[in-house]
């Protein structure tokens, strides 16, 4: 049965989507069956994996709001072993619509349970907010990976995220764990980057991944080609480090 992992941090631009796409692709490279579920109305994981808006007829909105079977929304990517459930801008309305619905926190969980046996890993790319969509993701997950940008104010807002995690643990999902904290966009040339790494490590201890993702322009270029980094530029530092991360994630789950 798949391990379900949310990629979450309510701050935008910290590397959630980049990590979802590339960790997903690298896990599939290691022979795992992977499903990415995009629950950000921006749909960046969807386009970053090469899915064109015109080809999406049904998406995660229809699953969460209209109870369409999740299986019907799964699309193949160019990489074998890596599938995606797309999101489109219509998902933006779900946040409001959910507030008046029954069993609103468990809707995604119930949908995922129907296909959980078909995958080894299910990665949920969360939106930059702690609303109903993120709560649905946390309720459906075994654990959470928190990407943190190696910059000033890296830890800002994390107490809010940790509070939300505690609330979900208390009310909906007692077994929800923090899978790991991932430092992203690290720039070894600045003292600041190193300071932030030390700060995050002293706050989260051994929950911080040994793998640190460097700032690498190839990682920023790959999404416009609709490809994960290992299929776009396998020799790049970005590809090397995301492969290393995938190995670390698999090792931690043993
Ligand atoms: P989020 O999903 O948290 O909003 P993204 O993954 O979309 O963050 O990343 C924000 C921007 O930074 C994107 O343009 C992305 O391509 C770029 N980016 C992410 N990680 C890296 C990295 N390690 N090196 C360089 N650019 C990156
Ligand atoms: Mg994103």
Which properties best describe this structure?
Rossmann fold; 7-stranded mixed sheet; binds magnesium ion; single chain; alpha/beta; globular; 254 residues; 14% strand; binds adenosine-5'-diphosphate
Shape from CA axes? globular
Count of beta strands: 7
SS content category? alpha/beta
Which strand order does the major sheet show?
3-4-2-5-1-6-7
The ordered H/E elements are: EHEHHEEHHEHEHEHHHH
The oligomeric state of the chains shown is single chain
Query: Approximately how much beta-strand content do the residues carry?
Result: 5-15%
Give the second-level CATH assignment, the architecture: 3-Layer(aba) Sandwich
Helix content: 25-40%
Largest sheet: number of strands, sense, barrel closure: 7 strands, mixed
Per CATH, the class reads Alpha Beta
How many independent structural domains?
1
Report low-confidence residues grouped into runs of 5 or more: none
Q: Calculate Rg over CA atoms.
A: 17 Å
Mean pLDDT: 96
């Amino acid at each position: 049965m798949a391990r379900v992992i949310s990629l979450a941090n309510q701050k935008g631009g910290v590397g959630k989507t980049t990590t979802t796409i590339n960790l997903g692709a690298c896990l599939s490279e290691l022979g795992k069956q992977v499903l990415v579920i995009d629950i950000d109305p921006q749909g960046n994981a969807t386009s970053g994996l090469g899915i064109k808006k015109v080809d999406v007829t049904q998406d995660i909105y229809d699953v969460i709001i209209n109870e369409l079977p999740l299986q019907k929304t799964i699309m193949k990517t160019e990489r074998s072993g890596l599938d995606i459930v797309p999101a489109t801008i219509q998902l933006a309305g779900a946040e409001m619509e959910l507030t008046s619905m029954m069993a609103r926190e468990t809707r995604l969980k119930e949908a995922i349970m129907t296909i959980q046996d078909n995958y080894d890993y299910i990665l949920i790319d969360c939106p930059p907010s702690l609303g109903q969509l993120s709560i649905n993701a946390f309720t459906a997950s075994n654990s959470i990976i928190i990407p943190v940008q190696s910059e000033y104010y890296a830890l800002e807002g994390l107490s809010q995220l940790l509070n939300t995690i505690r609330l979900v643990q208390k009310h909906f999902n007692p077994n929800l764990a923090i899978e790991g904290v991932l430092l992203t966009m690290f720039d070894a040339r600045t003292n600041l980057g190193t300071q932030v790494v030390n700060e995050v490590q002293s706050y989260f201890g051994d929950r911080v991944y040994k793998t640190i993702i460097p700032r690498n322009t190839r990682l920023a270029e790959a999404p416009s080609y609709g490809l994960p980094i290992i299929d776009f530029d396998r020799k790049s530092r970005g590809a090397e480090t995301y492969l290393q991360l995938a190995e670390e994630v698999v090792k931690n789950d043993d």
